[in-house]
């Protein structure tokens, strides 16, 4: 190995031995080589919420808004939502490529993500969570078979946990009933530039890391299976070039139901986005359907009925390329069986699943204006209206008491610094 002049000088004075420094330099060089492809990134997500009217006991039950485990109460105040730090070595172009990714999240939304193991318990409510942590591999099979083993994001959904990657700040009801993460093995294969496939097997529907089906009285062979297909229109297809269509199916044990005894959740998703002749205008749509059966099959009494949930959303986004300005609209409708949540203001006959804390029928409109004044900062103002469409009061009311309104209005300011 080449030894620098400073090293030779130290050796000449007898301060250190040459072999020792050579070994140290070799180790340092190996460490630098290992870290040369590693990146550190993330963001800090903050918000200010104003829920119009009085009474903060019953905010809308979409994800990370402060109901049924989906947040920590963000209404009428300033909030640290979440801090994310990612350490990653992505796969390279080699036939035998290896890498890894670790997503750590900190703050109230980390608790709501719910990946913490109840068996460990020490991190419950500790404002910390692991969103992803997996080893990535590529094998020279055809065009290249990619594998992830560990904890990884779910394969379905129009929106993601990372609010800055979504057209709107608040989450949709479709996102709310979807899984978020899985612990298992995911295979991905790109057939060509247009078509990609994925298939996976996981312990459960998620999100608790390392949770097994037998923890909930099921057999050891009770696993979660999933598959998806993604289509991307080629760039030479005119104005629709770059449009996408995606479909996925997941079947497994969802422990969020029946007071933790769990149920089989068969979740179907289809969604996509299409570019338009208007520069910067993109239209999108998403549909989620979840069939819940085999409820409390581990002998929990009383017996609980099967149920279903579904949600549909339409999106419109206008943001010209390289522009600081954007407008994003979303309209959505969601519904679930009364057996999932019989209504608000009464004692439910069945325990509420964490992802169904909203009226049996609900309609929502969301509008977001984005204007990024500062470098690396995403800045947004958002207005949202949620309407209980089942004829029952579902929102607001005193801190201790039943809801007293069918409509809920919210204004939000959101700042996200990305690094």
Description:
It is built from four helices and 16 strands. The protein has 419 residues and is mostly beta strands. It has a single domain, classed as Porin (Beta Barrel), CATH 2.40.160.10. The chain has a 16-stranded antiparallel barrel. It is globular, with a radius of gyration of 24 Å. The two termini are 37 Å apart.
Set down the secondary structure blueprint:
Elements (H helix, E strand, L loop, with lengths): L4 H8 L5 H18 L3 E13 L25 E13 L7 E10 L1 H6 L14 E12 L5 E9 L19 H5 L3 E10 L4 E8 L21 E9 L11 E11 L8 E13 L5 E13 L13 E12 L6 E12 L24 E11 L5 E12 L18 E12 L1
Antiparallel strand pairs: 1-2, 1-16, 2-3, 3-4, 4-5, 5-6, 6-7, 7-8, 8-9, 9-10, 10-11, 11-12, 12-13, 13-14, 14-15, 15-16
**Briefly, what CATH class?**
Mainly Beta
Helix tally equals: 4
Topology-level CATH name: Porin
Mean pLDDT: 84
What gap, in angstroms, lies between the N and C termini? 37 Å
């Amino acid at each position: 190995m080449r030894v620098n002049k400073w090293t030779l000088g130290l050796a000449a004075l007898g301060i250190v031995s040459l072999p020792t420094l050579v070994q140290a330099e070799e180790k340092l060089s190996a460490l630098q080589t290992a870290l040369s492809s590693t990146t550190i990134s993330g963001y800090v997500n903050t918000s200010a919420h104003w829920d119009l009217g009085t009474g903060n006991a019953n905010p809308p039950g979409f994800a990370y808004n402060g109901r049924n485990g989906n947040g920590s109460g963000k209404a009428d105040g300033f909030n640290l939502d979440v801090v994310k730090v990612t350490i990653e070595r992505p796969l390279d172009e080699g036939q035998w490529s290896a890498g890894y990714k670790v997503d750590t999240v900190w703050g109230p939304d980390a608790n709501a993500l719910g990946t913490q193991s109840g068996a460990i318990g020490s991190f419950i409510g500790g404002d910390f969570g692991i969103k992803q942590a997996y080893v990535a591999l590529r094998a020279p099979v055809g065009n290249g078979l990619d594998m992830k083993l560990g904890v990884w994001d779910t394969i379905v959904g129009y929106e993601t946990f990372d609010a800055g990657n979504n057209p709107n700040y608040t989450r949709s009801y479709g996102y709310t009933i979807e899984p978020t993460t899985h612990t298992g093995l995911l295979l991905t294969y790109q057939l060509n530039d247009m078509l990609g496939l994925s298939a996976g097997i996981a312990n459960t529907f998620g999100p608790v890391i390392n949770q097994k089906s037998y923890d909930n009285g099921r057999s050891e062979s009770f696993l979660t299976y999933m598959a998806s297909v993604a289509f991307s229109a080629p760039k030479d297809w005119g104005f629709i070039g770059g449009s996408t269509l995606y479909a996925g199916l997941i079947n497994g044990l969802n422990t969020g139901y029946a007071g933790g005894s769990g149920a089989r959740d068969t979740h179907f998703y289809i969604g996509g986005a299409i570019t338009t002749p208007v520069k910067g205008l993109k239209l999108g749509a998403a549909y989620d359907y979840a069939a819940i059966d085999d409820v409390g099959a581990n002998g929990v009494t009383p017996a609980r009925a099967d149920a279903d949930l579904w949600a549909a959303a339409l999106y419109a986004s206008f943001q010209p390329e390289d522009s600081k300005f954007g407008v994003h609209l979303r309209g959505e409708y969601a519904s679930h069986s009364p057996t999932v949540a019989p209504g608000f203001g009464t004692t439910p006959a069945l325990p509420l699943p964490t992802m169904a804390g909203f009226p049996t029928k609900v309609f929502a409109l969301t509008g977001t204006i984005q204007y990024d004044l500062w470098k690396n900062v995403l800045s947004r103002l958002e207005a949202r209206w949620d309407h209980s469409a089942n004829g029952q009061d579902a929102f607001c009311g005193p801190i201790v008491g039943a809801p007293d309104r069918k409509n809920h209005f919210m204004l939000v300011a959101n700042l996200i610094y990305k690094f």
